Amino acid sequence: MNPITLYRKAYSGLSRNSWLLTLVVFINRSGTMVLPFMTIYCTQALHFSIRQAGVVMAMFGLGSITGAFIGGKITDRYGFYDVQIGSLLSAGLLFILLGYQTHFYAICACTFILSLCNDAFRPANSTAIAHYSSPENKTRSYSLNRLAVNLGWSFGGAIGGFLAAHNYHLLFWVDGCTNLLSGVMLMILMPRANAKRNLTQRHHTAQSSPYKDGVYMLFILFVVLFAFCFFQIFTLQPVFYKTEWHLTEQLIGGLMALNGFLVAFVEMVLIHNLEGRRHPMQYICFGIFLTAIGLTLVNWMPAMALTGVMSIILVSFGEMFSMPFMNAFWISRTNEHNRGQYAALYTIAWSTAQVLAPALGSQIIAFAGYQSLWWTLGAICLLSIAGFYGLYQKRLKTVKVAPEMLLPETK
């Protein structure tokens, strides 16, 4: 079966609202330009130190943790529709406002509030996807959303590179306007709906906390280690390419776009051929190994654009092998009464890594240089592999994960 047939079969029969929601997400993600270029903007346009730029990027992560937590709470209280609208519109205005800030502390504060509002969208959007799906096509609806995220990220990164080469402030305006456009489109194209709260499920959830699951807590620790390394390609690696290798903003944007295109067009076909053949932990370990090679490649290959392309291809395939099966693993340990708590902890793991990646990575650069950073990331990846493989060898060899649980991760 060829890839076109696979995609046609995978995405047929979805509801109209699922497609409209995907269109809104695609437009929103197509404007994702500020985050990939924020470190370059801070160091090149505002003349911040690499440490200050790392703190600013950490504010994005800290706001993400807070926004995801608050977004989940208010989604249960007020419904996903209003939370999505409020998040998109408020974040749109804040992106524009951020572009006019020049003082370090003002940028940190604005970045935190922006990220909080922006990431409150995520739990509300996940709830909306489930609401507009039937039990038979819920997984495919999430997969369609993932495709929109990655395509949008690719377009945003590519266009952002051209805009950054001319005027960095255009990034903030485009990012803000696409958020505002997404919010308006959501109000016009989709009817208001509210998810019903299930108080009985909430009671049962409190009785089965993931914090008492020792295997899962170790799993979360190793996820944080891997995610710490992975996020460097969106935070400090662009600065490395600009300041050390002197690549253009257009080329840097193209490398980020390549990541999104590869994931969007290859991952579903790859997972279709891999699912159910091996234990998820084996794929996770292989994916992290590819990521380690991709991150350290810049230390032992010539300083040229082709090396950057090879690096992003390896990291992209590392992402495709590892992240969907990480999702498969945590979902396999849940039931209908505790899935929300497990999902929340998994999300917080990634957001925590998003905070630590630029903050600690910039400190390594300041004290020892970029070369030491890439070797350190390779070592951390190997440590993460050892942890995941240890879980597999000692505790998980007999655990089976259903193929239908292989739900891809979102960026």
TrEMBL record:
Any Pfam family hit: MFS_1
Listed InterPro entries: MFS (IPR011701), MFS_dom (IPR020846), MFS_trans_sf (IPR036259), MFS_Transporters (IPR050171)
Keywords: Cell membrane, Membrane, Transmembrane, Transmembrane helix, Transport
Cell membrane among keywords: yes
Transmembrane region(s): 20-41, 53-71, 78-98, 142-164, 170-193, 214-239, 251-271, 283-303, 309-331, 343-367, 373-392
Localization annotation: Cell membrane
CC annotations in GO: plasma membrane
Annotated ranges, domain Major facilitator superfamily (MFS) profile: 17-396
Keyword Kinase part of the UniProt annotation: no
Gene Ontology MF term list: transmembrane transporter activity
Topology with respect to the bilayer: Multi-pass membrane protein
Protein name (record): MFS transporter
Species annotation: Mucilaginibacter straminoryzae
Organism classification: Bacteria, Pseudomonadati, Bacteroidota, Sphingobacteriia, Sphingobacteriales
